[in-house]
Amino acid sequence: MNQPIHLRINGADYHLEVPTNRLLVDCLRYDVGLTGTKEGCSVGVCGACTVLINGQMAASCITLAVAADGAEITTIEGLAQDGRLHPVQQAFIDYGGFQCGICTPGQIMAAKALLDVNPNPTEQEVREWMMGNLCRCTGYYKILESVVNALKPGQGAKA
Amino acid sequence: MTTSYQTIGQPVSRAEGPDKVTGAALYTADLNLPGLLAGKCLRSPYPHARIKSIDASAARRLPGVRAVLTGQDIPENLVGRMLRDFPMLAKDVVRFVGQKVAAVAADDLDIAQHALNLIEVDYEELPAVFDPVEALEAYAPVLHPNFMKYAGRADDPQEHPNAMARATWGIGNVAEGFAQADYIFEHTFRTPHQHQGYIEPHAVIAQVDGQGRLQMWVNCKTPFLLRRQLSEGIGLPQDRIRINPINIGGDFGGKGSFMDSHVAYWLSKATGRPVRMVMNYIEELMAANPRHPAVMTFKTGVKRDGTITARHARLIFDSGAYGAFRPQKGITYGIGAIGPYRMEHSQIDSYLVYTNKVPCGNMRAPGAPQSTFASECQIDLIARELGMDPYQFRLHNLVRDGEESPLGHHWRNFMGKPTLDAAVREAGYQAPKMTPPDLAADGGDWKVGRGIAVCERHVGAGSSTAKISVDGQGQVTLYTPLQDTGAGFYTMLRQVVSEELGVPYNEVSLVPWSTDDARFDSGVGGSRVTHVGGQAVYGAARAVRAKLAALAADLYGWPESQVVFKESMVAAAGHQAVSLGALAARSGGLVEGDFTYDSERDEDLTCFTAQVAEVAVDRETGQVKVLNFTTAQDVGTVLNPQAHQGQIDGGVMQGLGYALLEELKHEDGRISTLTFGEYKMPTIADIPPLRTVLVQSQSGGPSPYGGKAIGEQPISAVAPAIANAVLDAVGASVTQLPITAERVLQALRSQPA
Asked: Is B12 near chain A, with CB under 8 Å?
């Protein structure tokens, strides 16, 4: 059964007809074509599919698209503005916070959600917040550095 | 580290960074093609069964289903990376839970899943064997009666019908060595399946084009080898198969197997449409290609003063139901099992055995984390029995530069002692052990301990090729058949070009090749790429440089040997410099250079790793907390410090997961840890403070600028270092991974009072 929904994704309006069992991750990736959001575990554990729904961090692989009807959604594609990377994105480059890149969109969205409410997190706060974003490449050390330093003054001067 | 290089060794960040932090980087599952169908496989629910019949008629009638295939519908060819023992779809027999028995292509995944539910398979269960030691008993069911007819098998006769390979390595005569010993120790150790844990599951898109040619996008790090494996299975000549470049979302050895590639081809051929198959993570944990479990018995003879007289290791690696996911002939696992210790008599007997479980494949340093766990844990058990400090015991027996290894190699510039000393110093190994105040305040009966483990591993070898072009605008483009697994070589290779041609590394454009564009490439893996890929690119850069220098000499009369390349300019002393682009423009077209590099492994060169874990163990609950971890790596020139450290960080944490958390648990052949909720990998909350010491080896390695290797080196010693620290803390010897609280408690309770 299809249902009409309206999503505001990265500032643009989308009026879609989706089956009621359509997952938000599939809706974003395949109905809208925003493949920056990744699917890893499919059970809401690995965090690769993390997006912001009305500013709140959410696992899009266990969220129904119809449940997001009317919501404002931010995906990784929505962070850079006018070709300028968001400071979190820049920090992940500067501090080496990614390797293969598959978990990176989710890591960055989770980090942004944290920094939106806490621009100067401690290492401990980052560890607690980012526990739901698995990464197998980096051992997390450089992710931790990236997030802790993302909004510090002079960020970007490193390297 | 300071070097005389412009970009080599400098702390540069990833050139491929912007694509990966914005979501622009494309992976296999991201691609869309017109008419794309969803493919999915039906998998066996039984560990060993005969397929009596399959009725797919209801599935075929379901609207939206475009093809249903069973083993009856495709050729019976067996496929494999080396040993070809794996049917593309099971026809008569299934040998593990999760084996593919039928495949569906449908308009979408929901329809495909529904269709799978409509396929009726009638099975007759057969006796199964799950334990690799039991599989070698006379009474064990024979899993592959036709083994001797399989292509790609080891040449030797089989010792037991379930032993797919056996190898023996060593020197001297262990019986003689044991006769010289004052004490002989024997211990058995067990390790579990470890999944590589890449976050991107296996994915493939196959499209048979209008000319009957197979176009494939697949997260495979060895596309040239896959092309051959496909050809053997589907019967198309290799030049009718093109594997296209794509980003790979994590590898760790696991992305070299074909998985659904053959089936995707058959579905595309049957439907005339492109088919995408993405394994979900339940399928990944059930039926991909995890690290082999092992059962390992080590017998070691020592003199009273701690001198090792002989070591014998009997290693049984559990391959699961097939051997098709291993790229080597026979068995290579366990070749370093004895450890880097001096002795005149050594013997390793290594077996690869069939069981009715998930087929195993390569994972980071395949074979080594298993045998290093056993070997290094036993070293500590022996040292403690002799009343020696494990560090002193190791120093006493460690091979020194110029001496013979226990397999008879003469490692050049062997860095064992300086690396071990560096780890011990950096870790404060000999400092007093204090329970951290927060743990002490937490209650429990916490004790702190420290443990050492060491290992050594080769620099990888193989073949790669590269091309570099410079155009009239000065744009430098690097072409490589290597696919990006994420380790950082797409930046490192650009740095090599930058260094030789004097252009900024992040202005070098990198174009990955398909399998049509090069003759061959060994692919990513085996701690190979900095060496092999690096030398191919270095050779291509030197070829372009030579052409440009000759052109400058020709055009401007500069002495060819004095032409320098710097800041995108070409210059010679006393002359007006010209831009690279202006010079290239004078050639009348692109200036190009290519190079193919082939190498054999240098057995006399190795990379040494020494690690120290500091843990706290709660005697009441058995809980283990890693307080600190130190790794010392013997390195040559580090080409990219950020990527190099990234390999160390990731390798250590993957080792920490192996030590404490990770295990595919089985119940009668069924894996019960089928999501990341149950298969627990380390999270950011689990990481201990990590100290790294890089110990410079003077001779360096075979990579350009004297680099060695780092991808596989940091992982193998982690688990034994932690196990030895637990032993040091509370006297509990845990001989089976992972080191769970239950196992620690059990070991504590089995101690003599």
From this structure: yes
Count CA atoms closer than 13 A to A59's CA, side-chain side: 16
B117-126 per-position pLDDT tens digit: 999 999 999 9
Please state the domain extents for chain A.
2-76, 87-149
Instruction: Answer for the pair B327, B307: CB distance below 8 angstroms, yes or no.
Output: no
Number of domains in chain B: 4
Position B9 in a domain: no
**Residues of chain B neighbouring A76 (CB-CB closer than 8 A):** 21-23
- Residue B222 falls within a domain, yes or no? yes
Query: Closest-CA residue in chain A for B283?
Result: A41
The Cα angle at residue B422 between residues B417 and B428, in degrees rounded to 5: 125
- What residues make up the domain containing B719? 416-458+605-753
DSSP B27-46: BGGG---TT-EEEEEEE-SS
pLDDT at B723: 98
Which CATH number describes the domain made up of A87-149?
Answer: 1.10.150.120
User: Sorting pLDDT into bands at 50, 70 and 90, what band is B440?
Assistant: confident
Q: Are residues B190 and B273 in the same domain?
A: no
| Contact residues, chain A, for B641 at CB < 8 Å | none
How far does B573 lie from chain A, in Å, by closest CA? 32
Compare CB distances from B486 to A92, A101, A132 and report the shortest one's residue.
A101
Instruction: Give the burial string for B437-460 (b: 16+ CB within 10 Å, else e).
Output: eebeeeebebbbbbbbbbbbbbbb
Query: Does the CB of A146 have a partner CB in chain B at under 8 Å?
Result: no
CATH topology of domain A2-76: Ubiquitin-like (UB roll) (3.10.20)
Q: Are residues B746 and B695 in the same domain?
A: yes
Question: CB B646 to CB A34 under 8 A?
Answer: no
pLDDT at residue A110, rounded to an integer: 98
Residue B11 lies in a domain: no
CB atoms B22 and A134 under 8 Å: no
Q: B36 CB near a chain A CB, below 8 Å? A: no
B249 contacts on A by Cβ (under 8 Å): 38, 100-103
Strand locations in B321-473 (E) = 345-354, 446-457, 463-470
C-alpha closest to that of B102 among B61, B145, B73: B73
**Interior angle at CA B513, CA B510 and CA B516, nearest 5:** 160
Q: Does pTM surpass 0.90?
A: yes
Are B494 and B638 found together in one domain? no
| Domain match, B615 and B728 both | yes
- Whether A96 sits inside 8 A of B486 (CB atoms) is no
We report the CATH number of the domain holding residue B480 as 3.30.365.10
